[in-house]
Specification:
Blueprint (H helix, E strand, L loop, with lengths): L2 H11 L3 H11 L7 H15 L5 H14 L5 H9 L2
């Protein structure tokens, strides 16, 4: 894609696209049945999105992901974080 496209997204969202791509790459082979891995991913997404995630919300997200065994991506976690 065009580099200007990503620069426009960065300007509008304040989210560094390199961080998003690095996160996406790390998710490809992650074990989402492992609580430690899931918590780590949630913390990275919160950091990238510049959001604080209360412990109760983190616990709820972790349990949902581990229980449902859904595939995980940046958008899924970001949506969960923003629903607080």
């Amino acid at each position: 894609m065009d580099n200007n496209f990503f620069k426009n997204i960065e300007k509008k969202t304040g989210v560094n696209m390199k961080d998003v791509f690095d996160l996406a790459n790390s998710l490809q082979h992650a074990n989402f049945k492992d609580e430690k891995t899931v918590r780590s991913v949630i913390k990275r997404v919160a950091q990238i999105a510049n959001r604080k995630v209360p412990k109760e919300l983190e616990d709820k997200i972790v349990q949902t992901i581990i229980k449902d065994g859904k595939s995980l991506d940046f958008s899924t976690i970001a949506n969960m974080i923003n629903k607080k």
